[in-house]
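Page 37, continued from 36.
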């Protein structure tokens, strides 16, 4: 099924670590050309070296999703390197914690600029190239936090993730005529390198909130994105897939 992504060109924003790295690895292992975009070029290059052990060609670029011009330059460079852009995984995001009473306007704007406006900029930069593809795919990394649940200290993050889904539905309408689908993956608690240093007790507490009694892996999110990017998912647009091991199901 996933053979349809072989040879396709995929941009993954925020692709040097965490869920983004898992998405990039999954596509690379299935033969896609993958452009990892991150603000830290050294981190993106290190990730590209690691992932190039797979079947795809992995390329590192420096890009800032809060800057539309930066993303336009990235998209142009990717197209010149691989000859096309077929899939955009708009994954870049930040999640600093701060309570409502302590939150500043700057705190709010920083998160919204990266998570919500950053999605807009990445999509706008890629649209001209996605229109030229045989079929285009946009996969947004949202979250269960905001669209479905809440979490103390993350009101700005939750708002940005809910905003992504409102954006997704209208973008799906606007781009449907160009054979471009727009969908989103909503991760629950996922084990990333940022959590590994917090200790087993903390990780077990997170896992206990999940009916399957384990944290998700970054590849779990990668495979959901891979499906939405496949040829076979061509009649799915404006939709969300929750990948959380049943985390949102219990009533208490």
């Amino acid at each position: 099924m996933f053979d349809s992504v072989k040879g396709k060109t995929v941009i993954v924003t925020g692709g040097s670590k965490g869920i983004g790295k898992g998405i990039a690895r999954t596509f690379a292992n299935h033969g896609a050309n993958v452009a990892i975009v991150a603000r830290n070029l050294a981190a993106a290059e290190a990730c590209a070296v690691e992932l190039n052990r797979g079947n795809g060609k992995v390329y590192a670029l420096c890009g800032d999703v809060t800057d539309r011009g930066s993303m336009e330059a990235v998209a142009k460079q990717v197209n010149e390197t691989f000859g096309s852009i077929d899939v955009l995984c708009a994954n870049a995001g930040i999640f600093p914690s701060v309570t409502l009473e302590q939150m500043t306007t700057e705190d709010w704007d920083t998160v919204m600029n990266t998570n919500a406006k950053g999605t807009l900029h990445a999509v706008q930069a890629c649209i001209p190239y996605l229109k030229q593809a045989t079929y285009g795919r946009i996969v947004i990394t949202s979250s269960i936090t905001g669209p479905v649940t809440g979490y103390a200290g993350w009101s700005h993050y939750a708002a940005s993730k809910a905003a992504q889904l409102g954006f997704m539905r209208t973008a799906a309408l606007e781009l449907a005529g160009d054979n471009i689908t727009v969908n989103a993956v909503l991760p629950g608690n996922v084990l990333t390198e940022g959590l590994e240093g917090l200790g087993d007790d903390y990780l077990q507490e997170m896992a206990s909130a999940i009916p399957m009694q384990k944290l998700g892996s970054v590849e779990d999110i990668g495979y959901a994105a891979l499906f939405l990017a496949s040829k076979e998912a061509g009649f799915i647009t404006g939709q969300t897939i929750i990948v959380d091991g049943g985390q949102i199901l219990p009533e208490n």
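The chain is about 45% helix and 15% strand. Flag for discussion at group meeting. The longest strand covers residues 180-187.
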